[in-house]
Design brief:
By secondary structure, the chain is α+β, with helices and mostly antiparallel strands. Helix content is about 60%, strand content about 10%. It contains 20 helices and 9 strands. A hairpin with a 4-residue loop joins strand 2 and strand 3 (about 95). Helix 7 runs antiparallel to helix 14 (about 355-390).
Length: about 550
């Protein structure tokens, strides 16, 4: 009975993995890049100046400079905000000393006009705006593709990715059940054994980051939970539009109250900032907001730097703007469901992680690509073995041939297309209309071309040639960057610009990985082609040597 159940799970694992494998590989590749989406975005906009860490300035003095400027530009606004210099974990970049305000809305309008300025931390003078960078999809566009699939309508894309994610969860669980010696097999690898070698590799990369795979899959399903289960939204927020809007107002707009005009607080702000500094530390104060709701006293809200798993709901201290008295904390309107969703969101995106933590996420994502890729190849290896046992040539089966071509185009061709995405960023004219869209078009055109190439070429040659093409595409990106921007690898290292240097070094590292893969594939095929037992037939990637 147990063996029959395990065999059923093996069948489920095999076919679920195949059906969703190509979409999941795309999701993992683009999603893994998202852990460095800000760094990728900065590399794709080289016109942006290098943002250095600002000098640690006294928050009280900066607040005084900001208040003086806000009184000049927005004396009767709906709200004032002062942002202090700090590192924003979610965006992984330094926030500059700046002010922001919202004017009182005109009659018949819900919101007023807004404005913002960056100020000098020494004098409070307005800083000139940055140079307008080139239009680009950037790292954020690359990241968004892992759930939006770019060309499809959002609702279709969410559902397709959701189905693929659910199938992956089923594949993971059924895989754990199937491999009863999964942890023992983790330490076993038998090279040159064809199907056995691919299974060993699949087991190793699967177990190596198994907790990550479970977390990323389950949390990914929660991302669009109400898209997949609209009934749950009705239960939590109500079925009518009015109740849903009331919840939204309470959660995101501070309730249905309307803003009233504000002025500079009568109470000194130094004691308020001192209280926050005593609780959190002076460098952990992110911003100060001054606002007033109709029927309520004016408030000064001091916000903590976003940290931990609740980046989008940082701690706050509230004070009466006229008396300086501490006001009670407001309850979280989202409750336990909102807190759970926030934690899962931050776990999935890794926005709480520091620099090294994001590299762990990145490496785990690459292992996910390896798990899916080895699983796809393993299916074709097993299928070819079945055909050989029955005296048939697997290459004559149209279904197997299609799967093989899709495997080549996905495993070798998609990384080539990602490299083409970066090439397009440097080669497309800067003033080109719809430039960001053409970066996307370049990526998908290359990917589609890789598929047709895999169909047209002998399969064993398609593997080697596309792997070498991908190696070359990544290896030449640093050279292309140096020729088109001047911010080449050695200049970036000399200037301490580790965004550009790190990107170029990562491209070289990926090129090295594809070079090793291409060499191993070529050596294997060359050895197999010399085998005397099958002179009329040369092996395809994954088959054992004779």
């Amino acid at each position: 009975m147990k063996d029959a159940f395990r065999q059923s799970m093996a069948w489920l694992h095999t076919w679920v993995g195949l059906v969703a494998g190509w979409i999941l590989f795309f999701v993992f590749v683009t999603g893994t890049a998202g852990y460095f989406q800000l760094e990728i975005g900065q590399w794709m906009q080289p016109e942006r100046s290098v943002t250095a860490a600002p000098a640690n300035a006294d928050r009280t003095r900066l607040t005084e400079l900001a208040m003086q400027r806000l009184e000049q530009v927005a004396p009767a606004a709906a709200s004032w905000n002062v942002t202090f210099p700090y590192i924003r974990p979610g965006e992984r970049e330094w926030m500059n000393f700046s002010i922001r305000w919202e004017e009182m809305p005109k009659s018949g309008h819900e919101y007023g006009a807004g404005g913002s300025e960056q100020l000098d931390t020494r004098t409070g003078a307005i800083l000139p705006p940055d140079v307008e960078p080139r239009e680009t999809a950037g790292g954020r566009g690359l990241y968004r593709m892992h759930y939006s699939l770019h060309y499809l309508p959002y609702q279709w894309a969410y559902r397709i990715v959701g189905i693929a994610t659910m199938l992956m969860l089923v594949a993971i669980i059924s895989g754990i059940i199937t491999h009863k010696k999964i942890f023992k097999d983790f330490f076993t690898f038998r090279p040159g054994k064809g199907q056995r070698s691919w299974l060993d590799a699949h087991n190793a990369v699967s177990v190596m980051a198994l907790p990550f795979f479970l977390m990323i899959t389950y949390s990914g399903l929660l991302f669009f939970l109400f898209t997949y289960m609209p009934a749950g939204k009705a239960v939590l927020y109500g079925t009518d539009e009015e109740s849903g809007r009331a919840f939204y107002d309470e959660l995101y707009e501070g309730g249905a109250h309307r803003h009233a005009p504000i002025a500079r607080p009568s109470a000194p702000m130094a004691p308020m900032l001192a209280q926050a500094a005593a609780l959190w530390g002076a460098d952990q104060i992110a911003s100060v907001t001054i606002e007033r709701m109709e029927g309520e006293p004016p408030q000064v809200i001091v916000s903590h730097v976003p940290v931990g798993l609740k980046l989008y709901d940082a701690a706050k201290l509230r004070f009466h703007a006229d008396s300086g008295a501490r006001l009670p904390d407001e309850p979280d309107p989202s409750g336990a469901p909102g807190a759970t969703q926030t934690v899962m969101l931050n776990l999935h995106e890794g926005v709480y992680a520091d620099y090294w933590g994001r590299w762990v996420y990145f490496a785990s994502g690459l292992l996910g690509c390896g798990m899916i890729g080895t699983g796809l190849v393993l299916w074709t290896v097993k299928r070819r073995r079945f055909h050989l046992a029955s005296g048939q040539d697997a290459r004559e089966d149209a279904g197997v041939r299609l799967v093989e071509a899709l495997n080549v185009a996905t495993i070798a061709g998609l990384p080539l297309a990602i490299a083409g995405f970066f090439w397009a960023n440097r080669l497309l004219p800067i003033g080109m209309m719809d430039r960001a869209d053409w970066e996307y078009h370049s990526l998908f055109a290359l990917w589609l071309g890789a598929f047709f190439y895999a169909l047209a070429r002998p399969l064993r040659r398609a593997w080697i040639e596309l792997l070498w093409a991908t190696c070359a595409a990544f290896a030449l990106i640093p050279l292309l960057n140096g020729l088109t921007t001047g911010r080449h690898l050695f200049a970036a290292i000399g200037q301490g610009d580790w965004v550009f240097a790190g990107f170029d070094l990562t491209m070289l590292g990926l090129a090295a990985c594809f070079a090793i893969t291409a060499r191993k594939a070529a050596k294997r095929l060359d050895a197999g082609s010399k085998a005397p037992s099958s002179p009329a037939r040369q092996p395809i990637l994954g088959e054992a040597q004779a």
